[in-house]
């Protein structure tokens, strides 16, 4: 049953207040417990990095977040994961990824907007959560996810390329980012990591992304091909990949792949690709029609059910990574739910430990 808008707003504000108080209390407690040497070292490291407002580096907050969440994080080689509805998901018996990639794994949001207006993610004015909309909530989800797992976060504002649609900027952005990242998770800000405690290495194991994989992405929904406005299959009737959410690995073949993708509309090697320079589906069409056939051995495509839009028109539930599209309210609600669920898991575990601990013990 849907709550009236006033009650719904009050509930969201209340939940956010609880989360804020919890974080502030955590920070105070951790600062109190830390010795002066550790605090001084952390401050010195942060100060030496200089002003990097949209790039996550080693900060005191990141260290605290990892300390709090680490007991709850799923091991990257855990055989099974069970969601809150009791559904079980598994990985192979011999998973490729056995350890965390850490800061060499980069979560990157690509967009053309600065997002620095009041109540947007990168505004220096005080943030009013109740008034925050657009893509900003998704950025907070990605930033927190990176902090929990020790990844690096980037927000890259792409510049328009001459003669190309805006979305082509992400292809060049991914190529340049590989010089500082071993793995790139490039996604639009309207995607939400549903389970903040599930590391991306576990998802790579789940989706069979191996050491030989250069690029991986989810496929479109098999049930979305009826509208002429939706490009969901290439000219050979094969489901197209979703280039709004791409995993890129720094292996030898990836640089040639990305260069070929970027130059596809020049038609030097791919006659007919020029139409995708400014015509939808742009870089998605170029990849689906040309690039994936030339680099098939290094590309992994997996069903959309675990990483796409959840809706009545699609065959995809968005189990682990959910795309909310243009629906800003659903995006904000999805981000709030992901953060609150993870926080209450932490609080619940701590409460149970203290409730049944002997009186006077810590």
TrEMBL record:
<dbReference type="GO" id="GO:0000139">
    <property type="term" value="C:Golgi membrane"/>
</dbReference>
<keyword id="KW-0808">Transferase</keyword>
<dbReference type="GO" id="GO:0016757">
    <property type="term" value="F:glycosyltransferase activity"/>
</dbReference>
<dbReference type="InterPro" id="IPR008630">
    <property type="entry name" value="Glyco_trans_34"/>
</dbReference>
<dbReference type="GO" id="GO:0006487">
    <property type="term" value="P:protein N-linked glycosylation"/>
</dbReference>
<protein>
    <recommendedName>
        <fullName>Nucleotide-diphospho-sugar transferase domain-containing protein</fullName>
    </recommendedName>
</protein>
<keyword id="KW-0328">Glycosyltransferase</keyword>
